[in-house]
Specification:
alpha/beta, six-stranded parallel sheet, 44 helices
Length: 1003
């Protein structure tokens, strides 16, 4: 070993442990933490000292200050260490000779770069750690410090050390390439690190927010590269749109080694569950980039032992259990350092001058300094352009942007146009996709026939294509990212995608010649249409539609007269309905209808198709009165123009029946159902999917009318036919299976219903995903099956989960959400917080009253349930008044023999008895038995409840012999029907008076 080297020794300050102070540039933090970990494992004391020199301080003084550190000083030599300041090689050579050479024994160094360094670095005798494995790098580190290299002592505790810096985590995907010009932000990066590390398990969510162009994405990427070695999983997701976010998060499933099917719904569920449990990896980091609308995705942000970083312009993430960290514009020191690194020809005063003119905005500094370095233009002349404007004949930028943006971008675009005009063409083409990751793959894969000559040449010539991209990259206009396509995408291979910043996108899009705009937008529309799989009901195609949907707005597809583009729009609307994206889909449907009516005319076939899809989406958002008015007007016009056997007319009437069902007009709906079914049957045949849809709808109407036996028979027929025609895992087949299981439960066939429903829920989760409304519908029925079977713990947990899922997916005023809320509140009344149940019950009634007309069965039923809450809190008289009024209202709404009315009567008789109206209660329970037996049968659970209640009323009248007879017969039938140990049987045997819970049927 060199005699100039000195082994690490105690500091002489009373500390017996050997000390090493590691001096490193923030960019090389991963190396510093790995080296520190290796030294600490062998008992050394390590001090980390980030090298952050001030530009105005002489370099020799800074090195003398460094020499004051404890123990041996280990410098991590890299280009970053020597660039900070920034300083020239000449400055470094002088300082190293002056300060380090006379004190060489205090210093040691390792080199983690292959770039050229100041020649005087030789005084540090750096050991090279590049291009080698971890073991050899560790051996060289200890050799340079004159330390023995042996196996660290065993502690009995498993050690999970820092990952070797050149080794990526086990799972790594979507992360942008590291920006080697990243400057400053060290304090913010450390703040982000400590906010996440100090967070409680399950609460490690941090939103990095700030104005456009401040570098939020670059900040998050730098965090990954500095701290990524502490994670086993690092996954980067574009989160601008919900559909895109869901798809990209689902792609993590195979990387985690999760065994799932091809459907992305199953993959998404598996990923979220894996992250929540921390298995197989607990040290995970997820980055959600560009999540500017929290309402779009907050419900899908994973929880668990890992960490989530969100980049967003929107600080409202703080309302969704996220910590906030604002990224400001650069400090002036950071701006100057960055400009001088990006444009070495500029002096420090010139860099300061430029930073001031561009308001320290990182994005603009990056783009401007890049081309200034290649230009002969002086900073003074450039600033004069900024202040004085430029000719009107050259490329201009919209006045919507601040003056600095306008002029700086005008200069840059003209520079691009002069050097590689194809780069401007490519840039403009990209602005007709959504900002962020641009799927240029779609441009490559589309047919290139009849493209404008300039674009055909660009897309067909790989050399020209690469030249244009490289020019845009050179000036930081776009970023080129590696991209892997989903594993189930046949025939695809790894490729590249372009990343276009939102601000750049907006500026370029606003200003281009009309001729270019018409040509480029047409190309992107055709590319999107060519990517349409054509079957939106097939869940295997949902990934493709999720990729297409975010770009519809930017390609202004609604104004296209191309039939293939219009078909693609209609398929996207259909997909959004099946995928449960109701609110987003309804907004697109409204715009489609308005635009096409103006473009194509009120009675164009495409307008009628759009009306149908929009009505489905609008109805699903709960705006039923609007939907009914829309479809009734459409039906009347279609009947006049085309007649009653026209397909569009039939489809519109079928939609109208859905509106009438929701509005509680069941008899009117059944009349239309019974006309529609034979009409479809005659036109298309018994096995046509449209005929089966009508049959399904008729079964639902019968269920709403309380005709459960008729309904279950039709549901059974529909389910069998759909399994044959559409296959077992088609969403409509799964829907029929839920309907069939619901009817079985309503008939009291609880075990059979639960068996079918449990299987169905497993398949819904696989095919459609856990948060799809169809899956939630099945889970709600499963919870009620379990509740009826007496499994209260599982039922309560699932009811809570379903309600939360509906609230996240559809909002708290959707009819499906309210249906789940009603059942959850009934459970809470009996097994939870009664005061909370009262408050929630009042809220449910208020929401129903807002959505539905007065006198609707759902409003009445919610009031009946609320009467039971009032009874439980001791307000008997109030409860009695409410239930009596509800009984009268329900009788008027659906008739005196409907199960809803019979259930009201069961509760009304109980409250009459409770307030002392014993004879009236007995008469009502007797009449209820008669009507329930005629409607539902002698052994239906509701009839049995009425019989048990009547026995109690007879006992209250002291007619014990008659009461005993009625009770024994009821108990015998309960045991025969449900089983002797069923909770209902046991409760009746214990003489607990039964009550009825209203359950709204929404689908």
């Amino acid at each position: 070993m060199s005699e100039a080297r000195t082994p690490v020794a105690p500091t002489g300050r009373g500390n017996a442990r050997q000390t090493v102070t590691i001096s490193f540039a923030g960019f090389n933090r991963a190396w510093a933490t790995w080296i520190g970990d290796r030294l600490e494992r062998r008992g050394l004391r390590v001090v980390h000292l980030r090298w952050d020199p001030q530009a105005e301080e002489p370099l020799a003084n800074l090195l003398r200050d460094l020499a004051l550190a404890e123990g041996r000083i280990l410098i991590l030599v890299s280009e970053w260490y020597f660039q900070l300041g920034p300083r020239t090689h000449e400055e470094w050579n002088a300082a190293l000779r002056e300060v380090i050479a006379p004190n060489a024994s205090r210093f040691a160094a390792v080199s983690i770069t292959n770039t050229s360094l100041p020649t005087a670095t030789a005084v540090l005798s750096p050991a090279n750690l590049t291009n080698m494995g971890e073991d050899e790098a560790e051996r060289r580190l200890f050799d340079r410090l004159d330390l023995p290299f042996d196996t660290p002592p065993a502690t009995g505790v498993p050690h999970r050390g820092r990952r070797f810096p050149t080794a990526t985590p086990e799972v790594w995907g979507g992360v942008p390439r590291r920006n080697t010009r990243f400057t400053g932000r060290d304090r913010l990066l450390n703040d982000a690190y400590h906010l996440l590390q100090d967070s409680e398990p399950g609460a490690g969510v941090l939103t990095v927010h700030g104005m456009p162009g401040v570098g939020k994405t670059q900040f998050a990427a730098e965090y990954v590269y500095r701290f990524g070695s502490e994670y086993d999983v690092v996954w980067w997701v574009n989160a601008e749109k919900r559909v895109t976010y869901r798809r990209l998060l689902a792609e993590l499933a195979p990387k985690l080694g999760l065994s799932t099917g091809a459907e992305y719904g199953e993959r998404l569920r598996a990923v979220r569950d894996s992250l929540r449990r921390g298995a197989p990896y607990s040290r995970w980091l997820l980055i959600l980039d560009g999540a500017d609308e929290p309402d779009q995705i907050w419900d899908l942000v994973p929880t668990g032992p890992g960490h989530v970083i969100i980049t967003s312009r929107n600080p409202e993430w703080g309302e969704h259990n996220s910590q906030l960290l604002e990224v400001p514009v650069y400090s002036r020191e950071e701006s100057v350092a960055f400009i001088r690194r990006r444009a070495p020809r500029l002096t420090e005063p010139e860099a300061d001058q430029l930073a001031d003119a561009l308001e320290d905005l990182p994005l603009l500094l990056d783009q401007t300094a890049g081309w200034l370095n290649d230009s002969d233009l002086s900073v003074d002349d450039y600033i004069a352009l900024l202040e004085g404007g430029i000719d009107q004949d050259v490329v201009k930028v919209s006045a919507d942007f601040p003056l600095a943006f306008q002029t700086a971008w005008s200069i840059l675009l003209n520079k691009l146009r002069e050097t590689v005009p194809e780069s401007v063409a490519l840039l403009r083409l990209c602005t007709f996709f959504a900002p962020g990751f641009i799927p240029v793959r779609l441009l490559k894969e589309m047919p290139h026939d009849d493209l404008p000559e300039e674009l055909a040449g660009l897309l067909d010539d790989p050399l020209l294509w690469n030249r244009a991209i490289n020019q845009l990259r050179q000036y930081s206009v776009v970023r080129l990212e590696s991209h892997e396509f989903p594993a189930d995408e046949a025939g695809s291979a790894p490729g590249e995608s372009l990343y276009l910043h939102r601000m750049v996108h907006q500026i370029v899009h606003k200003d281009m010649p009309d001729k270019d705009r018409r040509e480029y937008i047409d190309v992107v529309r055709r590319a999107l249409a060519a990517a349409d799989p054509g079957r939106p009901t097939d869940t295997r195609n949902w990934d493709a539609y999720a990729e297409i949907v975010p770009h519809l707005k930017y390609a202004d597809v609604l104004k296209s007269t191309d039939r293939s583009v219009q078909s693609m729009v209609l398929n996207c609307l259909r997909y959004m309905w099946f995928a449960g994206e109701y609110n987003t889909g309804a907004k697109l449907g409204r715009r489609t209808l308005d635009t096409w009516r103006r473009l194509l005319g009120e009675s164009h076939p495409r307008v009628w198709e759009a009306t149908f899809h929009y009505a489905n989406l609008l109805r699903s958002t709960g705006r039923v009165l609007e939907t009914e008015a829309l479809e009734r007007a459409a039906a009347e016009r279609l009947r006049e123009e085309r007649g009653e056997r026209d397909l569009e007319y039939l489809r519109t009437v079928s939609g109208l029946t859905a509106d009438l069902r929701i509005l509680g007009r069941y008899e009117e709906t059944l009349e239309l159902d019974r006309w529609l079914y034979p009409t479809y049957q005659e036109l298309f045949g018994e096995q046509d999917s449209r005929t089966l849809n009508t049959l399904n709808n008729m079964a639902f109407t019968l269920r709403l009318l309380g005709k459960y036996e008729e309904s279950v028979d039709i549901d059974r027929r529909t389910l069998d036919a759909r399994r044959l025609v559409l296959k077992a895992r088609h969403p409509w087949t799964l829907f029929s299976e839920v309907s069939y299981a619901i009817n079985l439960r309503l008939l009291g066939r609880y075990a059979e219903a639960e068996s079918i429903q449990a299987k169905n829920v497993r398949e819904c989760r696989i095919v459609m995903g856990r948060d799809n409304p169809g899956t939630l519908r099945g889970e709600l029925n499963l919870a009620l099956c379990r509740l009826r079977a007496g499994n209260r713990a599982d039922a309560g947990e699932l009811l809570t989960s379903v309600l939360e899922g509906y609230e996240r997916k559809l909002g708290d005023t959707a009819l499906e959400t309210l249906s789940a809320a009603v059942s959850h509140n009934c459970f809470a009344r009996e097994h939870g917080d009664i005061d909370q149940a009262r408050e929630t019950g009042e809220s449910i009634i208020a929401r129903y009253e807002m959505l539905l007309p007065e006198g609707h069965p759902f409003i009445i039923g919610a009031r009946v349930n609320h009467a039971l809450v009032l009874r439980s809190v001791g307000e008997r008289e109030h409860a009695h008044v409410v239930v009596e009024q509800s009984l009268a209202d329900m009788t008027q709404a659906v008739g005196d023999s409907h199960p809803y009315t019979l259930g009201c009567a069961v509760n009304a008789s109980a409250l009459r008895s409770l307030v002392g109206e014993t004879e009236s209660a007995t008469q009502l329970s007797r009449d209820t038995i008669t009507r329930a037996t005629e409607t539902l049968g002698r052994t239906h659970p509701l009839t049995l409840s009425a019989r048990v209640a009547h026995a109690a009323d007879l006992r209250a009248l002291r007619d014990r012999r008659h009461a005993e007879k009625v009770e024994q017969e009821a108990l015998s039938d309960l045991a025969a029907t449900l089983g002797a140990q069923h909770v209902h049987t046991i409760s009746a045997r214990s003489r607990n008076r039964p009550y009825w819970d209203f359950e709204p049927q929404t689908t």
